Amino acid sequence: MRLNRRFAVLLLASAVPLAAPVGSQEAPRQSFSAEDLPELQVMGETDPTLRKAQAIVNGDVITDTDIDQRMGLVLAANNGNISEAERPRLRLQVMRNLIDEKLQLQEAASNDIKISEAEVDRSFDRVAQNFKKSPAAFEAYLREAGSSPAAIKGQIRGEIAWSRVLRRKVEPLVNVGDDEVQAVIAKLNAAKGKDEYHVGEIFLSATPETEAQVLNDAARIVGQVRQGASFVAYARQFSEASTAGLGGDLGWVRAEQLNDAVAPIVTTLTPGNPTAAVSDPIRVPGGVAIMSLLGKRQVLAGDPSEAILSLKQISLPLPANTTEAQARDMVKTFQAATLTMGGCGGAEAIASKVGAQVAVNDAIRMKDLPVPLQNVLGNLQIGQATPPFGSQQEGLRVLVLCGRDDSAAQVKAPNFEEIYAQMNDERVNMRARRYLRDLRRDAIVDYR
């Protein structure tokens, strides 16, 4: 049973002095001078490494160590590129998130929901894989970033616990009718060939009183992401949507499925461009959203990024003393040769003629290539080559398109279970935000 907690914030700033009794006389004011002060002697020991409580949430303590280690995760996502002026604001946001996490864990405990260490470790290992590291290497990486394995495991535990609370307390109250799902399937079939979007989201809740501050916080997140910070990392740390654990990934949606305030903006974003793929903060019901466009395709059409390519790479090394003018001449010669080689079959002859080497890859997925190369290869016919690219250190390269298999890119017809799950998640998410709002309202939070 959930405890009935009333909201109280205890500020330890100043106290109101009691009025003097009526009729009492003021004591003469005493004064002192600097000469009256004794030599400074520290009474007791002071430990500068002592980590004090920053907030107590219904009796559970959040220390500045907890905040520092979560800040380390944010700094790692930004490669440390956060200004000193920005850090206090991020720290405040991190503390808000930790308070929410405490409330979620407390609610799970009050519903007798227990999360085993084995579950947390398995999820930790999956996060390490997302960073392309072994668990041990990921632990070392976190410590180098000023964080710790315990910090991210605590976040994982909170995510798992909250998802189970929602499954037990919220999902049974959500109802999605079969007719609603069939209506969406009919709309998808009718919209075949129209655009749909792979979208990421960060949602920050706001009230009319806090909206201005939340908009400022969202604008700072947008600025960091546009400068190269990880949208996924910010979504995991700050988003209050149910997709936070997935790095904000909302999946493939049509514009009609998005909020009316969000849809017109998402359609103007450009995937693959850090500055043009992320929206400005958007006012939405209940708060502020930041949207990221990860991809674009046509409804029930193939996704070009999933195509499997057969490529030949022709690599031409550059001598160490090559000047810029010489490099330009070599690029022109290299490009002229590849334009007239007669397709993939002529790659070896051209390579031999110009002193280059040939490598083959018959199973490379389009989306695994750098975005600029995807844009070039997407417009090539079989047998055509890209313009030369590379650097002084790596030499010049040309990719020749020898084959393309679009079968892997085909999109299946709308699936009843998938659409049902998406609609169900959306409704659970709305109720979850109200649930957390109620927990905040009833909480006793003592800020130190």
Tell me about this structure.
41% of the residues lie in helices and 18% in strands. It has 448 residues and is an alpha+beta fold. The strands form three sheets. Strands 1-12-2-3 form a four-stranded mixed sheet. A hairpin with a 2-residue loop joins strand 6 and strand 7. Helix 3 crosses helix 4 and helix 3 (117-130) crosses helix 5 (149-169). 27% of the residues are buried. The model is unreliable at 1-27 and 39-51 (pLDDT under 50). InterPro entries: OMP_Chaperone_SurA, PPIase_dom_sf, PPIase_PpiC, SurA_N, Trigger_fact/SurA_dom_sf. This is Parvulin-like PPIase. Keywords: Chaperone, Isomerase, Periplasm, Rotamase, Signal.
Helix content: 40-55%
SS-based class: alpha+beta
Overall form: globular
Distance N to C terminus: 29 Å
CATH architecture of the largest domain: Orthogonal Bundle
**Poorly predicted regions:** 1-27, 39-51
Number of helices: 13
Order of helices and strands: EEEHHHHHHEHHEHEEEHHEHEEHE
Q: Tally the structural domains.
A: 3
Tell me the name of the CATH homologous superfamily of the largest domain. Porin chaperone SurA, peptide-binding domain
Radius of gyration: 29 Å
**Spatial sequence of strands, sheet with the most strands:** 1-12-2-3
CATH topology of the largest domain: Triger factor/SurA peptide-binding fold
* Main sheet summary: 4 strands, mixed
